[in-house]
């Protein structure tokens, strides 16, 4: 730590942002979850953590809005290799299920295979919960890096022990309210349905930039009083008609309770910022707009209790997705620290 110069280029040391501090010294713990078993369109997000660590080496640590940003103590929890192994094993089974469904095979015939995948996902959720709980018990704020968007359920459960109630700020192109998508109970497309069903402490789900969802999800949004969905259509139409982004951010933050967990699916951003992600969708939010929203949340009277960043997938021939992902992750960490110092 004593020899660390934040002005020099980072030296890859396996830590996020090549930071010199140990996990024990850190205030924020990043838990990598390389899991994309239920990905329906394009796999690759299991490589998210590794690619973000690699790209994060070249993120400059200075930030105009956070004094002494480089002193933020971000710790890297070593990857659990068993998760990588299980991901490979169960991804194959899930792929065969998806192929059968596309051929028109009935769900009933696929029950044995679906059971295997669902049990594996349950066990992953328990592992992530244990990994996060351990860090919380040591006084750290937990950030999960996926993987697909099924992976943060364990972190949401772990932070639920910190307060009586909390809200989720959910940035995503998708509503993720599907019930057992493609037969997978813990699908990436079901994370918010599962969170609302399994975690009674969640009193509010505020969604931002959603633009690709089905009728069943629209019905849930319209009938569940806990959900406020700021669709991409609504946000953009407001903007076109003269409502400022500042005012829209104030509305988004006002919908949240005192304690806030941020669940960030990279595909909430405009697809040119995440071309390699599992399910890119046109439209979406720009980098500076989301940065503005997160900073406003950080300096608001709300408390950030944890976060995740999911669905970052390295591109086939570029590190652009990981580069953007690393910068979003850094902002999440910096603003969480800024928020905790208030
Ligand atoms: Mn999602």
Distance between the termini: 26 Å
- CATH class equals Alpha Beta
CATH topology description: Arginase, Chain A
- Please identify which CATH superfamily we are dealing with: Ureohydrolase domain
Give the percentage of residues in beta strands: 5-15%
In the CATH classification, which architecture applies? 3-Layer(aba) Sandwich
Query: What proportion of the residues is helical, as a percent range?
Result: 25-40%
Mean pLDDT across the residues is: 95
Order of helices and strands: EHEHHEHEHEHEHHEHEH
The largest sheet is: 8 strands, parallel
Structural class: alpha/beta
Shape: globular
C-alpha Rg (nearest Å): 19 Å
Unreliable segments of 5+ consecutive residues: none
Bound molecules: manganese (II) ion
How many DSSP E strands?
Answer: 8
Q: Domains counted in the coordinates: how many?
A: 1
**Number of helical runs?**
10
Strand order of the largest sheet: 2-1-3-8-7-4-5-6
């Amino acid at each position: 730590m004593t020899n660390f110069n934040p002005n020099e280029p980072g030296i890859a040391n396996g830590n996020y942002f090549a930071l010199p501090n140990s996990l024990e010294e850190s205030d924020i713990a990043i838990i990598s979850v390389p899991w994309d078993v239920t990905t329906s369109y394009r796999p690759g997000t299991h490589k998210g953590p590794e690619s973000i660590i690699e790209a994060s080496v070249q993120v400059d640590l200075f930030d105009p809005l956070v004094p002494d940003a480089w002193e933020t103590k971000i710790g890297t929890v070593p990857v659990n290799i068993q998760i990588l192994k299980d991901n490979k094993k169960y991804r194959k089974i899930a792929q065969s299920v998806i192929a059968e469904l596309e051929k028109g095979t009935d769900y009933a015939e696929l029950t044995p295979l679906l059971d295997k995948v669902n049990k594996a996902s349950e066990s992953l959720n328990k592992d992530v919960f244990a990994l996060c709980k351990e860090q919380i018990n040591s006084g750290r704020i937990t950030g999960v890096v996926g993987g697909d968007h099924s992976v943060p359920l364990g972190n949401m459960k772990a932070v639920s022990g910190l307060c009586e109630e909390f809200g989720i700020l959910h940035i995503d192109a998708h509503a993720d309210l599907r019930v057992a998508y493609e037969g997978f109970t813990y699908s990436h497309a079901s994370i918010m349905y599962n969170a609302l069903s399994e975690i009674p402490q969640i009193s509010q789900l505020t969604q931002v930039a959603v633009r690709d969802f089905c009728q069943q999800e629209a019905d849930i949004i319209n009938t569940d009083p806990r959900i406020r969905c700021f669709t991409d259509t609504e946000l953009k139409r407001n903007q076109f008609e003269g409502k400022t982004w500042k005012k829209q951010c104030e509305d988004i933050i006002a919908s949240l309770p005192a304690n806030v967990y941020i669940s960030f699916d990279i595909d909430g951003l405009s697809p040119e910022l995440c071309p390699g992600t599992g399910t890119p969708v046109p439209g979406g939010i720009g980098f500076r707009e989301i940065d503005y929203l997160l900073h406003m949340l950080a300096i608001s009277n709300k408390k950030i209790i944890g976060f995740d960043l999911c669905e970052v997938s390295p591109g086939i021939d570029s590190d652009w997705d990981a580069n953007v992902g690393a910068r979003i992750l850094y902002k999440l960490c910096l603003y969480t620290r800024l928020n905790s110092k208030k």
